[in-house]
Amino acid sequence: MFKKVGRIAGSVTSYAGAVKQARGDAPTVTAWCSWCGAHCLHTLVTERIIGRSDYVCDNCGGPTVKCRYCDNMARGAGAFNGDGDQAPDYSSSDEPTKSKVANYFKERWTNELCSEHDGTVPDFSKATLRIADLSEFADLMKPRQKNYSGAAKKATFVAGKTLAVTLGGGPFAIAAAAGSGLGGRAGYGIANNYLKDIPDYNFVKVQEGLSASRHSVIVINGLLSKKNPQTVREEEWFDLTHDWVSGLRGTYDDDDIWHLNWDAKSLANFGSWAGASTGAGILAASSGLSNLVLSVSGNPWYSAMLKAQKTGAILAEALSRTEGTTFTLMGHSLGARVIFFALMALSTKDERYVRDVVLMGGAVGRDKVKSWEKAGAAVTGTLYNCYSANDDTLRHLYQMANAWLSKPAGLGAAMPPAFNIDCTDFISGHTVWKANLPQLLERISGLGKA
Question: How far apart, in whole angstroms, are the C-alpha atoms of residue 203 and residue 335?
Fold first, then answer.
C-alpha cells in the first residue's frame, strides 16, 4: 500500500525526498503541525501496530506523530533543520562521546504532546491572525488546550528568524521575532513564552478618544507605589494612571490612550527604591544592592530589566498585529526600557507602526550607537530622549546594578537619531516626570518637533 521510509544509521537521509518517492497512494491526515504551525497534510511513512506511526509534514518536511491528547501532530524523532533533512551521522564526527550520545537520543526522541498541549503555542488557528485593537490581544494569546507538559518549554513552536537583544552590562539575551516572523507564527510562539514570566501583562484603555482617529497613545509605567500590586483590579488602573491622562489632556484628546500593565510586583519594588527622597536615602538603598551586583540571579534590578526587555518583545508583537493603527509610545523609567526594546524588534519589519516616542528618565543605556539607530529606524516621527542631571536614582541604582558598564539615557544625551531634551531645570528627581508632563509636552512643542 505504501513504502516504508527507513532512517539509516550512518547516513544523511532526506526525509522529505524519501517521502516524495514513497508517497504514491500512501495514507495522509490533515492536522496542525508542531514544526511549522501550518494546517496541512501529513503523509504516513511508517505504520506501527504498537506505538504511534510516523508521518512527515507535507508543508515543511518535518517528522511528525499524533499528539497523545488530540488530533494535532507532535514533533517526531529526528533533528530537523527546517529543510526536510535528517541530521548527519555523529558516529564519525569529532564531537566528544558525551555529545554524541546526547545527540543520538535527542534525534530519536518523539514528543508526546503537540505544541498546544505542551504550552508552547496558545492556539494554532490564531498564530497569524490580526487584531482590530489592543483589547483583543489577551484573547489572541489565550490557550485553547490544557497544558499537560508540567513545565513551560523555553523554545518557540516554530523555527523562525530571531533578533538577539542583549542586556546592556549583563549576560542576558532576549529573542524577539525578526522580519516576517514578527506578527506571524514565530513571534506568536516567542510572545507566548515570555507571557509566562509576566502573567499580569494587559492593555487597559484609560481614555476614549474624541474622534475616530486610527492613532493611539500607549503609556507605560516604570515604577508603582501601591503596596500590594497583586490585588490591583482592572478598574483601579484608571486611578493609577490618572497622572498620565491628566498630563496628556489637551494634547492627545482625539486619541485613545492605553496603559500597558506589566509585572506590577517588580514595579512596586522598584518604586520603593526610587522613592528615597534624599541622596543619602538613595545611596543607602544602592549599598543594599552592592553585594548583589556580581550575582546576576539575585540582583532585583537585573530581574526587572530582563522582564522589561521581554515585555518590549511582547509589545512589538502586539503592535505588529494591530490593523490600521499607528502609535505614540510614552514610557517612564523601566517603561522607557520596554519601549526601547520593542523598537529594536520592530525595526526588522518593513512596515512602520510607531509615529513618535517619548522616553522619560529612561532606564536604558545611552551609548550604543547601533542600538539607538535600530530603535530610531522603527519610528516615522521623532524619538525623544528626555533626561535630567538631577536623577540620583539612575545615577546610583541603575549604574550600580549594571556594574557601571552602562550609562542611562535618563541621565544624559543619547546617541543619534535620538532627539535629546534636557529637563534638568524642572525635573528634580526620578519620580516627578509624570507630574511635569504638561511642561515637558510644552517644551517639545516649543522645539518644533511635536
Answer: 14
The residue assigned the cell 517639545 is: 444
CA dihedral 295, 301, 306, 308 (to 10 degrees): 180
Task: Name which of 140, 148, 139 is nearest 119 in CA terms.
Answer: 148
pTM for the full model? Answer: 0.83
Q: What is the pLDDT of residues 204-255, one digit of tens each?
A: 999 999 988 899 999 999 876 554 455 566 666 667 788 999 999 999 999 9
Q: Find residue 54's DSSP bridge partners.
A: 46
Pull the grid cell for residue 279: 541622596
Q: How far is it, in rounded angstroms, from Cα 364 to Cα 311? A: 14
HSE (CB half, 13 Å, CA atoms) of 447?
Answer: 16
DSSP 8-state secondary structure symbol assigned to residue 422: E
**426, three cell numbers:** 524642572
Q: Which three cell numbers stand for residue 185?
A: 507564527
3-state helix, strand, coil in the chain (%, to 5): 35, 20, 45
**Burial classification of residue 135, based on how many CB atoms lie within 10 Å of its CB (0-12 exposed, 13-18 middle, 19 or more buried):** middle
Cα separation, 140 vs 123, in Å, equals 8
Is residue 15 within 8 Å of 5, Cβ to Cβ?
Answer: yes
Distance separating alpha carbons of residues 237 and 233, to the nearest angstrom: 7
Residues 6+ apart with CB under 8 A from 127: 37, 121, 184, 185, 188, 189
On whether the CB atoms of residues 115 and 121 are closer than 8 A, the answer is yes
